[in-house]
Predict the 3D structure of the following.
Amino acid sequence: MRASHTITGWLSRACLWLVPLLSGSARAQFGDPNNSLLMAETIKVQGPLCMDRSEPAEKRIASCTTLIKLGLTQKAEVAKLHVARAQALQDSGDEQAALQDLDAAVNSDPKGKVPWIGRGDFYFKKSDYPHALESYDHALQIGGRDPQSDLLIYENRGSALESLGRHEEAIADFTRAIALDPQDTIAYSNRATVLLRSNRLALAIADLSEVIRLEPADGRAFYERGTAYERSGALEKALNDYREAVRLRPGFAPAAAALGRLLAARNPGEALENLSAAIRLDPRSAALRTRANLYLSLGQPERALADFDQVIANDGADGIAFLDRGVAKAKLGDFTGAVADYTRSLALAPSVTVYLDRGDAYLHLQREDDARADFDAALQREPQNVLALLGRANADYAGKRLEASLSDYTQVIEADPSNALAYFKRGNVHLDRGELAAAYEDYSASLKLEPNESVVLFNRALAAQRLRRFAEAAKDRKRAQELGASQRTAATGPVAPESTSTPTQVSMAPTEVTFAAPRTPAAPTSGAAASAASAQIGSTPPQQITINGYRRTVVNGQERFCRSEKMLGSHIQMKEVCLTRAQVQAEQESTQRFIENVQRTGGVTGTNPAIIGGAVGH
């Protein structure tokens, strides 16, 4: 809400009221004409200084004191001087002396409106809105119509009412102010602010359009109207208004921040320019968080982390900032750091989202029991939360609690029949339990929803082979190999540790593992859905595992190898996955051992062997 006119602001525009003191009876008061001229010069110099709030408070106090000491007989005018000095004293921090001057103003002009407006302004500045209302109400009760004074009262009382949450009364007062002065842009703007807060967007836009008509160079009005347009869904109009606001007021950080926020999905480069400009203008701007999240979406978690560090430095009690920083750390592979941030976020602002993300981080750290506890906590708050059910099922599967994981995957499917991942995961459980027909059925349901997922084709081929449906198995293997080859050409790289919650979603990208086919495939001795990529037993020659697409980076002094991979259910969005050198090497060694085992036995032995982050089969 814009600052309404203050009483001294009004008096400073009308300081010529002092000049008539030198005519008629006033001249008789000063006696000697030469003395009158001296007084006139004093008033001419000190009057504007007393009333100008842009001047230092001490200078205004001195000027007002000089004028008060002249001993003017016009009590209403003396009261105005006391009000002006009271505001200067309040600005200097001497509230007790300010109140004494306001009392003197009331005593000097007990039937005047100005002293009571001054008292209302005093309490308003202290955020003591009830006492401010009492003073403004008293001013209105004083008889006599004074449009200039009444305009001030309605504007300022409207602001006090809005601060107390009395929106309709505030709108009524601003409407009365507009009736007194249809050119009063402050009243229009403040009424628009109340209308915005009460979600009456069309009316707010109308008021702000009137402000712009009256003051076409008012950049803040464009910004506020842009806000109204954005909230109403008129994004093109909002974008145009934000651009105009930035042009007219290049130093106004909120406008640059709003423009950057709206451009984030359209033009990330221009968005970053405007967000960075807003941050330079105001290092505590909300643009800092927006830029951090934009960096995350652009696959630049290192830069996002730096911005989230600053957001937290600005406000160490910002629970959402700790959550967001945890996401950035998770994307960089620092799951221990992510857990610490999620834990801090839970202490400040507990939510289902934080439990989901921390549970996901625990899964990456192979702390299945801790992960399950977090997913349980999320389900206590939202019993039908699909991500929490999926996460708990994953934790149970990792802990070899197949019955429990089967139940949760089934609940996910009942709640969300279009969840391809849940069908795939449940198929894995069935496969490990030796329930081949059920596994085949679930893999088929997953492929119906996401037909181009080679890892699901691998697993269905394995189930078909165990069911002795060799033609179908061969067909699935061939299709999986074709998909895998095309994606290797695109350098998507191997899959990384899976996740269950929004910031680090589960990937179903195919592994870059190929196997040699034994001449006569042997039936596997036991189920191992987590390693079902072994189903790729075809006629291609043996190949060494390849890990492509990684880029080396340093995070907090630690070496990481990062790459982007496709997120489940989306052929557009990508997620950033980072591993340590040891993790990459361990995956290579584990996968090679697994390949050799498959080549030797023609099948899979053991449950849940570790291959490329464990995402191929589970």
